[in-house]
Amino acid sequence: xxxxxxxxxxxxxxxxxxxxxxxxxxxxxxxxxxxxxxxxxxxxxxxxxxxxxxxxxxxxxxxxxxxxxxxxxxxxxxxxxxxxxxxxxxxxxxxxxxxxxxxxxxxxxxxxxxxxxxxxxxxxxxxxxxxxxxxxxxxxxxxxxxxxxxxxxxxxxxxxxxxxxxxxxxxxxxxxxxxxxxxxxxxxxxxxxxxxxxxxxxxxxxxxxxxxxxxxxxxxxxxxxxxxxxxxxxxxxxxxxxxxxxxxxxxxxxxxxxxxxxxxxxxxxxxxxxxxxxxxxxxxxxxxxxxxxxxxxxxxxxxxxxxxxxxxxxxxxxxxxxxxxxxxxxxxxxxxxxxxxxxxxxxxxxxxxxxxxxxxxxxxxxxxxxxxxxxxxxxxxxxxxxxxxxxxxxxxxxxxxxxxxxxxxxxxxxxxxxxxxxxxxxxxxxxxxxxxxxxxxxxxxxxxxxxxxxxxxxxxxxxxxxxxxxxxxxxxxxxxxxxxxxxxxxxxxxxxxxxxxxxxxxxxxxxxxxxxxxxxxxxxxxxxxxxxxxxxxxxxxxxxxxx
Length: 547
What we know:
Blueprint: H1 5-18, E1 21-23, E2 35-37, H2 39-58, E3 74-77, H3 86-92, H4 94-97, E4 99-104, E5 111-113, E6 118-124, E7 127-133, H5 140-152, E8 163-170, E9 180-181, E10 195-198, E11 202-204, E12 214-216, H6 222-227, H7 229-236, E13 242-251, E14 266-276, H8 281-298, E15 306-310, E16 322-328, E17 339-348, H9 350-357, E18 360-363, E19 366-369, E20 388-390, E21 395-397, E22 400-407, H10 408-419, E23 420-426, E24 432-438, E25 449-453, H11 459-472, E26 478-480, H12 486-496, E27 500-504, H13 506-509, E28 519-524, E29 530-534, H14 535-546
Parallel strand pairs: 3-13, 7-9, 25-26, 25-27
Antiparallel strand pairs: 1-2, 4-5, 4-10, 6-7, 6-8, 11-12, 13-14, 14-22, 15-16, 16-17, 17-22, 18-19, 20-21, 23-24, 27-28, 28-29
């Protein structure tokens, strides 16, 4: 799928117009990389999180387990604190490794993520430079042409005098920055050498703002599950294999947040750590990677826009035995590229061992505790016993971990992009118009049904519509709307993604035909077909559709 910024712009516009998402602190100019969910967005996100929790925890054993694995396993949830002991992040490796490289521009005073600066070699009258841009342009080469013409002081008609070499590449491919023209400058060599930028947000605990009281907002939720491993075994009597799941906020000080809510500085994760015997770990890894992919398609994501991509060996994290990403073809992706929704990682015994022994680093094929110059652990672990003892087999071992880790906000964005449709329809006056409809799966749609009295100035219609609302609201999210022509109300709910509309009209009251008394007009969002249905059958019908 080719990059389609016009489609992405339309989706972002709809999100603001209908109340899915707004930029944080917008009335003060906004904060980049931070977003607020509106009434529709928060309902959609809650429904997605609930679908994830139900499938991973509440009904996790409804699906078939791997061959040879135990016939039943337990899944439990926790909610850990956002601020944890600083040693957690030193032991886990985040303190040292959780960073991006960035470059600064001495002229413009702007900062860029190193690998997001793209450019290409160009020559004009023997003067060869590497010209760059740092934006999400529709056409990178067109943008580079404009930059090169500006640098050389040429008019557009002289573009054919520019001699381009090689392919568009990232700045890290260029060794000599003295030959680089920065994205927002007109001079050579204004970019600094890259330097590491730690992505964790710092804070302080207590009244003193010194190194002893420094802490961090968590960059991931996973560590909260690892450090509570022993607590959960002791308090809940769970046995390996079992999983611990958590949903919650994480924070990363991204250098260049972009693509709407895809890359932001505050985001929510849906993660699960599955602890299993080392001998069974690859079976469970295969099981969870396949099951997580299926979850997205079961909830309506177009399978043609979704891939399950195994990491190459050189992509794997230092602790990973194997990793697969569930990726979606967002409109902002280049053709053939996808954006990550979820990673399923086989983490081996890295995490529990780290928190027992100290920060682990790879030496050859082995993970060993990192030592300082004096031979002591650089970041010592807790010293606690985080092994598991099987009282049936009399075996003690450090469990291996399989981690499906999904971004809730990215998942919401994927479902919004997947649901967005523009259709040409004929209105009641016989004219063609464009209908924008969000085709959410009924299980995750913000509102399940809209209820409309045909006319708002007829008290008996309004009273009956309120009666229908009261019937449905204990079981599902209902939107009541009595303003405007009924066709406009339908269109508003189409844009909200509401699967069904219920209209209370004069037939409902039995004024025209007593045979239709206490029936309503039920409208299907996707087909726009309308049928009559008794009010007595409405709740059961809708519950079957949304569950």
